[in-house]
Specification:
Elements: H1 2-42, H2 47-62, E1 64-73, E2 78-85, E3 96-98, H3 102-110, E4 114-116, E5 138-145, E6 148-158, H4 166-223, H5 228-256, H6 267-277, H7 279-285, E7 287-293, H8 303-319, E8 326-335, E9 338-345, H9 352-355, H10 375-385, E10 389-394, E11 400-407
Parallel strand pairs: 7-8
Antiparallel strand pairs: 1-2, 1-6, 2-3, 4-5, 5-6, 8-9, 9-11, 10-11
Helix pairs in contact: 1-2, 1-4, 2-4, 4-5, 5-10, 6-8, 8-10
């Protein structure tokens, strides 16, 4: 009997191992299918292509005849169907569903994957329109990116008319994770493309205005005989327009780093030069200038770029105090392995909504012809290139402080 018992134990262990191997094999097969589906999703280059790929891969992965993707609109507290496949009787795209309502709304509210074997027997949900679905089984998983709900992926009607399985739910959940990553990537690409289009549009506008003016005055000069004084006035206006064009090009070169200089420099010398350059402007506005420059500061890299940064900051500070005078304070010190410069004014301050866009190329609050909106964008580009930083603190009616930090030394390493 002991021999029989021993054989039975071995048979039981073999059976358990066989079951375990079958589970592992099924798991490997599921992971392989998810990997292939994810690969197809990540090949998408834009949102439309991504949505098509996501739904096609989800349908194939869980053998669902009907799949849909709903995006979450947090402000409205709703889900909106952005893509649906297999729902021929009723067009779903564009339909809205409050968070908390229905299967998709339930998943959006609880942020957990859900498998419904038979909705008619599930007390959490009201009976569905039986004419729309062939079965009562549903899969629904949240699409989340770092805790933020992006949307909900749903699947109904397995092609064999059976209920969805646990493996189906795990596969759909894994696919939703890959979809979240792909949505983030595509969103970043589309954001960059939108910013690029906006930048090109603003650049074309900035270049066209002075060019049109220069051409108009040149045409007037060449058109018909005019008094010498008129010809001189037309040529002078053309010259000013061309100089503005040259200024735009110089700013763009600064923004791109095409003329970057790595020469070492003493920050205090650059600050003194920048303030001296704007001395007439300060006197014209009745602004008192206070310099508090620390002695013994080490040299830093980027002489020409930093001079441009300091000149921009001083000029902007004076522009903020064009009415009623004020005080411009320029201070330097050494802290945490960097040379710190602060340019503070007692001007009008900057509203929060403007602060958010302050370093955006071509964004300006100045009147037309008084600024191109490239100065601060160039400042940030210069500091990024030098592994430094630029920060701003401001409150309407209480002035503005720009803080610049440049790594000490000339070896190009950050602090």
């Amino acid at each position: 009997m002991s021999r029989v018992h021993e054989l039975e134990e071995k048979a039981r262990h073999l059976h358990e191992r066989e079951v375990h191997l079958r589970e592992l094999s099924r798991e490997v097969e599921l992971l392989s299918r998810v990997s292939r589906a994810a690969h197809a999703i990540h090949r998408a280059v834009d949102l439309r292509e991504l949505l098509d790929a996501a739904l096609a891969q989800c349908s194939a992965l869980v053998r669902a005849e009907k799949v849909s993707l709903l995006f979450h609109e947090a402000a409205a507290g709703e889900l909106v169907v952005v893509k649906a496949c297999g729902c021929r009787l009723v067009p779903l795209e564009g339909m809205r569903l409050p968070v908390g309502q229905g299967v998709a709304g339930y998943v959006a509210l609880h942020r957990q994957p859900l498998r419904v074997e038979d909705i008619a027997r599930d007390g959490r949900f009201a009976m569905r329109d039986s004419g729309r679905y062939a079965t009562g089984s549903f899969l629904c998983v949240p699409v989340q990116d770092n805790g933020t709900l992006l949307g909900v992926l749903t699947a109904t009607d397995r092609d064999d008319r059976q209920a969805f399985t646990g493996d189906d739910l795990r596969g759909a959940t894994a696919l939703a994770g890959e979809l979240a990553l792909a949505l983030r990537r595509v969103g970043q690409v589309e954001d960059r493309q939108a910013r690029h289009r906006e930048l090109m549009s603003k650049l074309a506008h900035e270049l066209r205005n002075p060019l049109d003016g220069a051409l108009r005055f040149l045409n007037l000069t060449l058109a018909e005989p005019s008094p010498e004084e008129s010809r001189r006035r037309y040529l002078l206006a053309s010259k000013q327009g061309l100089e503005r064009l040259n200024g735009i090009v110089e700013s763009l070169l600064g923004l791109s780093g095409a003329r970057a200089s790595e020469e070492p420099a003493q920050v205090n010398d650059l600050l003194a030069q920048a303030v001296a350059l704007q001395e007439g402007k300060a006197q014209q506005r009745g602004v008192r200038v206070e310099l508090d420059l620390a002695e013994g500061l080490p040299p830093v890299r980027g002489a020409s770029g930093l001079f441009q940064v300091f000149t921009n900051l001083v000029s902007n500070a004076l522009d903020a105090m064009e009415e009623g005078g004020g005080t411009l304070r320029v201070r330097s010190e050494r802290a945490d392995g960097a040379v710190i410069v602060r340019v503070a004014d007692t001007g009008c301050g900057i509203p929060p909504e403007v602060l958010e866009r302050l370093f955006t190329p071509f964004f300006t609050t100045k009147a037309p012809g008084r600024g191109m909106g490239l100065g601060l964008a160039v400042c940030r580009e210069v500091l990024d290139r030098l592994h430094g930083r630029i920060e701003v603190a401001s409150k309407p009616g209480h002035g503005t402080v720009f803080t610049v930090a440049v790594p000490c030394g000339t070896n190009g390493q950050g602090p």
